[in-house]
Design a protein that fits this description.
With 145 residues, the protein is α+β, with helices and mostly antiparallel strands. The protein has helices at 5-17, 79-89, 123-143, and strands spanning 21-26, 31-39, 45-52, 55-62, 67-72, 94-97, 102-105, 109-112, 115-118.
Length: 145
């Protein structure tokens, strides 16, 4: 039996936060900021490069029962907007795969938030990379205050 859609979506959102900078507030009011290295089904957290509570720490493990709030501190990469831009250059040849965090162009070029990760040896992949680089540059400039 598969998980309800809401539960599956919640899990996908949690997983998408792994590797990103987060802020955690515990039930007793302590706050931590760090890179979310891992999370489990009970919301137990592993944070790296942590600043908070009383000092800086390399890693902190937090029991999910004590986590009151988990905030994402950085804007997620907008795969949908990138897919829209790629589909203008490659009409009908892009597939957004949110489940794997990728866009597949021409059934062979895989693009993630890190760039072209597969199929990068063709002229079309060079064009995909150019579009990705332009998109990444524009969105990183938009994030700056």
């Amino acid at each position: 039996m598969s998980a309800p859609i809401g539960t599956r979506r919640f899990t996908e959102e949690l997983i998408s936060m792994v590797g990103r900078r987060v802020s955690v507030t515990t039930g007793d009011g302590r706050q931590y900021q760090g890179d979310l290295l891992g999370i489990d089904e009970k919301l137990n957290l592993v944070l790296g490069s942590v600043i908070g509570a009383t000092q800086s720490n390399v890693k902190v493990l937090l029991n999910g029962a004590f986590v009151r709030e988990l905030l994402l501190l950085e804007r997620p990469f907008d795969l949908r907007a990138l897919n829209d831009r790629l589909s203008r250059a490659f009409p009908g040849m892009t597939k957004l795969r949110e489940d794997i965090g990728a866009i597949i162009v021409m059934d062979s070029i895989k693009v993630t938030e890190k760039g072209v990760v597969e199929g990068g040896d063709r002229l079309s992949a060079t064009r995909v990379k150019q579009i990705y680089d332009e998109f990444a540059r524009e969105t990183s400039q938009a994030k700056k205050p």
